[in-house]
Please model this.
Amino acid sequence: MTRRLSLLLLCGLLAFSGGAGAVPFSLPTDQVPPREVGVSEHLGSKIPLDLTFSDENGAPVRLGDLVTLPTVIVPIYYRCPNVCNFLQGALARALPQVRRTPGKDFQVISISFDETEGLADARQSRAIYYQAMQQKFPTGAWRFLTGELPAIRKLTDAAGYHFRREGNDFQHPVAIFVVSSDGTISRYLYGTSILPMDLTLALVEAAEGRVSPAIRKVVQFCFSYDPQNSKYVFNIFRVSATVILLTAGMLFAFLAWTGRKPREPESKP
Amino acid sequence: MSTPSVTASDRGFLGDGKYPGIFGWILSTDHKRIGLLYLYSTMTMFIIGVILGLLVRLELIAPGKTIVSADTYNALFTLHGVIMIFLFIIPGIPAAFGNLFLPIHLGARDVSFPRLNLFSWWLYLTGAILAVTSLFTGGGPPDTGWTFYVPFSVQTTTNVTLAVVAVFILGFSSILTGLNFIVTTHRLRAPGIGWGRLTLFVWTLYATAWVQVLATPILGITVALIFLERVLDVGLFDPARGGDPIMYQHLFWIYSHPAVYIMILPGMGVISEIIPVFARKHIFGYWAMALSGLAIAFAGSLVWAHHMFVSGMSDTAILVFSFLTFIVAIPSAIKVFNWVATLYKGSISLEPPLLYALSFIFLFSIGGLTGLILGAAATDIHVTDTDFVVGHFHYVMFGGTGMAFFGALHYWLPKVYGRMYDKRVATWAWGIIFVGFNLLYFSMMVLGLRGMPRRYYDYVPEFTNLNVLATVGSWILAFGLVVMFINLIRGMISGPDAGMNPWGGKTLEWTIPSPPPTENFAEIPVVTTGPYDYSDEVLAPEARR
Ligand code: HEM
Ligand SMILES: [Cu+2]
Model:
C-alpha cells in the first residue's frame, strides 16, 4: 500500500501521505483487552530474558544469552503469505545502511509467533534475507528463532504486541521494537517502510538507555483481508458519489440552460 | 482614458456600513467586506501557523529534546499542518481575493447569493475557532498529523474529535463558496463578457469551485464516519472487528488528491493576472491558459471518480493514477511556459507583485521537479518518510500558493485600500523572504536525502549542522515576513494615495475608484475588449504612475 500510494501521488500530494505508512496507537494497557489485535506500547518495561527459544540450528537459546546488545526484535511468522515478507524485506534493505556496526553495536532477532513453525522455516527465511542483503551483513547478527506457545505469549504480552490466530494465518500488527542490552523496551517502529535513519536513531537511544515514544505512524495490519467486509461502506460511498455527480450535472445543465440573468441595469442583483 | 479623480479620502466600501462599527462588517453581505473578513482571518491563521512552524523548527535545532517533548512535538506539527492546509492555503486565495474581485472582474455588483456568502464566512470562523480550541481542551491537542490517519486517530486519546468536527464545518464553508462562485460566473457577467473574455483569475476560481463542489462532500462523509467511529464505536476501520484501516486512507485521499488542485489553481490564476500587467503584454495563449486550468480540475475530478467507483488498489488502478498525475503535470507545464512566453520581449517592470510572481514560477518549478524525483526514486532511495518530502511540499504549497498569495496582497491591496505601500521596503522584504525560504527548505531536502526522518523531534548528531542552517533560515524567513506585513499594514493605513490604476492594469477593477464603491459600478459596464488588451499601449513607462 505504502509504495503504491507513493507512486501515484508524485505530483506533490505524496507529500502529505506521511508515506502512507502508518501511525501507532499507544494506549494505556488497561484499554486494550489482551486478545485484541494491536500494539500497546510498554516503553521502559523489560522483556522476560529467561525464556527459551530454538535457533536456526534447532539448538535451544535463552533470550538473556542472546540479548547482550541493543537488539531489534521482529515478531513475524515465517510462512506469512503477506506483510511479514515485506517487513523483513524492508529490514533487509535498511539494515546494511544503518550507521552502527552490526554484531558489535546491535543485532536483529526475528521471532515467529506461530508455534507450529520450526527449524526449516527459520532456515529458509534466514537464507532469503541474507541473500537479499548480498552478504553485506555479518552472519550471526540477524537471528531467526522459533518457539513454544507459552514462551511466545510471554514475550509478546510483555511487549504489548497482540495478535490472533485465524486458521493457518494470523491477524497481527506490523511492528518491530528495540530493546537495550538489558532487555528494556526503548522504541517501537511501525509499518513496512523502515528508514535506516529511524533504525539508527532507535539503536542510539537504546544504547544510551533512553526510552522514546514512537514516531507517530499508522499501524498497519497483516490479516487475511476480506473486501466483502467493508463492502457496505464502499456502497455508501458509491451511492453518495452518484448523487453528488447527478446533482452537480443538474446544476451545470441548469446554469448552462438558463444562461445569464436578465438584468435590469439599475437594480442591485 | 478619462478617469474621475478619486482620492483615498473617498472611503468607498470601507466607509459607513449598514450597521455601526464591527457589526457593519460581520453582518455585511457586501462581497468586498466578506473578502476582507476572510483576508483578516486567513492571515491570522497564517501567522499562528508560522509561529507553530517556527517552534517545530526550533525544536529541531539540536538533537535530543530541545524545547518540547515528543508528544508536544507531535501536537505542534499536526496543528501546524491542519492550520496551514485547512485554514490558510485552501480558503486563502479563493475566499479572500475571490470574494474581493470575482464580482468586479465580472462587472457585477455582488455575488449571486450574498447572504449565503456571509454564512460561509461564519462557518469558516466557527471551524477555525473549533480547530484552535482543540489545542487547549479535551485530552490534549490532536497529534495524528494533519491527515488524521486511523486507526491511530480512532484510538488516540487526544482531542481528535473536535478537530475532525472543525474540518467538517470548514468543508461546508468551502462548498457554499464554490456554489456561489459557479452561479455568479454563469449568471452575473456584464454585457460583453463572453466566456472568452473572462479573466484567467475568474477561470481558475470557476474551475476550483467545481472541484470543491464535487470533492468536498466526500471529506464531509469521511470525517462524519470517523466521528461515528469515535463516538458510537462502530468498528468501520477496526480490523479486529472486520473493518478496514486501509480504507480510511483511501477515503482520505479521495478528498486530498483533488484538494491539491484546490490549493494550487487559484494561485496560478493570480500569477496569470500579475504577469501581463507588468510585462505590458497580452497573456500568451489565453485559451491554453483557461483550458489548462479546466484540464487540471477535470483530471482532479477523474481521480476523484476513480477513487469513488473502484474500490481497492489494483495494479490497473495504480497505472491509471500514475498516468493521471503525469497528465496533470502537462497543464502545469503549459502554464509555466505561457507565463514565460508572456514575459518574453515584454516591457517588464520589476514591481513587488511581479517579484512574487517570478518567485512563484521558480519555487513552484523546483517543487514540481522534486515531486518527480520523489516518484521515480521511491524504490531506490527511501525518501518518502523523510524531510525531503517536507521540503518538497513546502516548495509546492508555500513557494507556490503562498507566494501567489503575497503577490496578490501586493497587487490588489492598493486597490482595496486606495493607498500604496513603500515599494522599496516591499522589495527588500521579498528578497529576505526568498533567501530565508530557500535556506530553510533546501536544507531540509538535503537532510531528507541523507535520511533524516520527518515527524520526529530527535535525530542523530551528524545531522546537526544542516538542521541549524534550516532553523536559521526559518528565522530569516520569519523576519522577512514581519517586514512585509508591517510595510503592508503601514501602507494601507497611511500610505500615499494609490490612485485608480497604479499598475496600469486592464481588467475591470482598475476602471473603478480605489477603494471601490459599495456597489462597485455606478453603471454596469459594457465590455468591448478582452481583459489583457495592451495593443493600444505605446510601451511608455510614464503611462503608468
Ligand atoms: C515560516 C514558515 C514555516 C515553517 C518554519 C515550517 C516548518 C515546518 C516543519 C519543520 C515541518 C516538519 C515537521 C516534521 O515533520 O517534523 C512542517 C510540516 C508541515 N508544514 Fe510547514 N512550515 C512553514 C510554513 C508552512 C506553510 C505556509 C504551509 C502550507 C502551505 C505549511 C504546511 C505544512 C504541512 C502540511 C506540514 C506537515 C504536517 C504533518 O506532517 O502532519 N508549512 N513545517
Ligand atoms: Cu504477516
